Amino acid sequence: MSEPIGLVTSAASEKLLVGRRTEHVPTPWGDAPIELGTIGGRDAAVVLRYGQKLTTPSHKINYRANAYALRALGVRRVISQNAIGSVNPAIRPGDIVVSHDVLDRTKSRPLSMFDEEECWVRVDMTHPFCPDVRRVLIDAACAHSDRVIERGVFCCTEGPRFETPAEIRALQIEGGDIVGTPLVPEVVFARELEMCFASLAPVINFGAGMAPAVTHFGPGSMNDLYYTGGLHALIETILEQAFKAMPATFGCACGKALEHGFHGTRPAWLTRMGG
What we know:
Number of helices: 7
CATH class: Alpha Beta
Oligomer: single chain
Number of domains: 1
């Protein structure tokens, strides 16, 4: 198996992930189930963040185990697929956003891969999303859609409930463009493990107060729009092209994130992974 490309998503069809098999990767935070196979002819390691049955809400995801497992399998580039809501009236359901920045509004999630270690890790987040992976995603998305938004601020909230209209208005004031619940701490842990990371985010609803009530399941719901309206199939086509186009090397600084951001004793698990 060559160096796999990572994908963190809610679902991956058999058409997208070929030769699928599950590997349970042991980590300091428990085993992490990873789906292995190929996407676009490239080796892939896929995290189904909500579980096989979509029953794990964002605030209960074992983020550290998932990130560790990808890195332990040799992953250095990660695409996070996020079906999300719009905070910006100019960004509408059906648009595809490749975010350039993130606004963390989570409350109770782990803050670092190194919380239990004798060290202080303070990685630079000037560019929270890898610019090189973003470029691959933008090019792949633009090849299949004329509704690609090449920049956006991703607001990550705690969940599991939807946001209130007042919270959506606050996010607008703070400069947010889209809103969802799973991105943080995924984006932070990828940087701490020196993996390139970027988000491909199809918009499937407006935030609370911007349209009639947001519903999760059932006819006319956000999931109904995404899975039966053709958007999920389009995103899988874009992902396949992005995997095919991912270059062997990048010029970004993601792989050196700990060089000036680590103070203290490196844990044994990090040393074993070459960090």
